[in-house]
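Before relying on records like the one below, remember that each one covers exactly one chain. Contacts with other chains, cofactors or solvent are not represented anywhere in the record.
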Amino acid sequence: MRAAVGQLSETDRAVLTLSAWDGLTTDEIAGALQLTPSAVRQRLHRARRRLREALADHQQTSDHVGSR
């Protein structure tokens, strides 16, 4: 997980951290980052997708290396 999160941009890490780990609502994140709630929802959606992709890529790499 740490490697996948490390591949994300600073913006992606910020919205994910504020949402998932700090438990802030969309409105609270919007206030903290000086964005509209709509922009936060969009950024969260994209950041979650990128994280899923990074996790999948990391898993594929781990599976490939482990099968040698």
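The chain has one domain: 2-66.
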